[in-house]
Design goal:
By secondary structure, this protein is α+β, with helices and mostly antiparallel strands. The strands form 4 sheets. It has an 8-stranded mixed sheet. Strands 5-11-12 form a 3-stranded mixed sheet, with no helix packed on it. A two-stranded antiparallel sheet has the order 3-4. A hairpin with a 4-residue loop joins strand 9 and strand 10. Helix 3 runs antiparallel to helix 4. The longest helix has 37 residues.
Length: 442
């Protein structure tokens, strides 16, 4: 959620920056509603003040035996009360409309984000490692999976439908090894607090993270009939399956006020993620390239605003460390304005090389959301020294950052294809071998 005061101060500048993300953004109606809201609040407050003053007069008049004058004031205050009720109804409607429009605005892009309306215009920051070369025709992950009995996509389709994975045998072993390696690496090497969060969350939680209300169609929602049979009465609290652990973790300190000395808070989580991703996909996105269900280790930080871009660099390094430990060739890219998630102010993607497609695929998105999510979830901290020259610090919104550390599906594709040998076997990277219990898959 953007700060309405900043929009009031510089409406043209804010609109211009937001239109680099979405050319259809208009804030004129928001300003109209904001002005109407403030006008109604002023009217209501003035009428309440008048009612309070007149109420004091009534008591005095009755004490002086002037009942007729008191009754006249009482009659008039009845009309004032009715007017207040009508104005409060109008105010509620205006506030609801204003909140709905504010909730659909994306975050302001950081000044360093490449400006473009073309998703492919990502800025390549750096490449790491060497692209593998083969003296044989490399097999794709589906061919390797069939020969080594790693996946059962046909079984998954019978059970769940298209684009759901079914890891099998050594495929399941490698998937679990990746999860364990990445999770324990961040706990042991980078001092993240390990958490294992719920897979389901209420609609209000997804409002905080930024998925709702704008992107509800991308989420898997628990059927309302099931909700009616449960003990949850509020339809706004419908449960959804998490599309990323970010949506869950950002709510950990919802409505809380932290002390500055408690920051930063660093969490690492493992969850299975679920995304509808409606649409048609090409031949190159079969198998594990694009699925409705995938596994991911997520990194999350709650930080002070003045340090958030230092933490952004650290978070990116923490995610990169996984790829480096696995000896993967990858590149680091900055997403353009048009490709940022609604909540993100800046995003860096890590992309691994898929040799049979001669193409890079994203395995991690690292984002600084600044105070966007904190405003939606009322997540604040109290600075150590008083702000605005006061002795006592006033709570302020902190900054939230998230990053995949990493998503396993495309990572596993790249790992299989880049580490294959002429006989069709797979060399397991040393960092992964102790979790997989073997050095070669054959």
């Amino acid at each position: 959620m953007l700060d309405i005061e900043k929009i009031r101060e510089n409406p043209e500048g804010i609109e211009e920056r937001l239109r680099t993300r979405d050319p259809d953004v208009e804030i004129g109606k928001i300003l109209e509603l904001d002005e109407k809201r403030r006008s109604l609040i002023k009217e209501v407050e003035e009428l309440r003040h008048e009612r309070n003053e007149e109420s004091e007069k009534i008591g005095k008049l009755k004490a002086e035996g002037k009942d007729d004058e008191a009754e006249a004031i009482i009659d008039r205050m009845g009309s004032v009360a009715d007017e207040i009720d009508e104005l409060e109804e109008d105010l509620e409607a205006v506030e609801s409309s204003l909140e709905e429009k504010m909730a659909r605005l994306p975050n302001l892009p950081h000044e360093s984000v490449p400006v473009s309306d073309v998703e492919e215009d990502k800025e390549v920051i750096a490449e790491y490692g060497e692209k593998p070369s083969f003296d044989f025709e490399p097999r794709n992950h589906l061919e390797l999976g069939e020969e080594l009995n790693l996946f059962k996509f046909d079984r998954a389709a019978k059970i769940s439908g298209a684009r759901f994975p079914f890891y099998y045998g050594d495929g399941a072993l490698l998937e679990m090894a990746l999860i364990q390696f990445m999770y324990f690496f961040q706990v042991q090497q980078n001092e993240y607090t390990p958490v294992f969060p719920p897979y389901l969350a209420k609609g209000s939680s997804y409002f905080t993270s930024g998925q709702l209300p704008k992107f509800e169609d991308d989420l898997y929602r628990i059927d309302d009939r099931a909700n009616e049979k449960s003990d949850r009465k509020d339809k706004d609290e419908t449960l959804y399956l998490n599309p990323t652990a970010e949506s869950i973790l950002v709510n950990y300190y919802k409505d809380d006020i932290l002390e500055a000395g408690q920051l930063p808070k660093k969490l690492v989580a493992f969850t299975t993620c679920f995304r509808r991703e409606a649409g048609s996909y090409g031949e190159e996105e079969r198998g594990l390239i694009r699925t409705h269900q995938f596994n991911k280790v997520e990194l999350f930080r709650f930080v002070e605003p003045e340090n958030s871009y230092r933490h952004f660099e650290e978070l990116t390094h923490d995610a990169e460390a996984i790829l480096q430990e696995l000896g993967m060739h990858y590149r680091k890219v900055a997403l353009p304005t048009c490709d940022l998630a609604q909540q993100a102010s800046k995003t860096i993607d890590l992309e691994v090389w898929i040799p049979t497609q001669e193409k890079y695929y994203e395995v991690s998105s690292i984002s600084n959301c600044e105070d966007f999510q904190a405003r939606r979830g009322s997540i604040r901290y109290r600075p150590e020294s008083g702000n605005n020259g006061s002795n006592e610090s006033k709570p302020e919104f902190l900054h939230t950052l998230n990053g995949s550390g990493l998503a396993t599906s495309r990572l596993l594709v790249s790992l299989l294809e880049n580490n294959q040998r002429p006989d069709g076997s797979i060399e397991v990277p040393e960092a992964l071998a102790k979790y997989a219990g073997k050095e070669v898959i054959q």
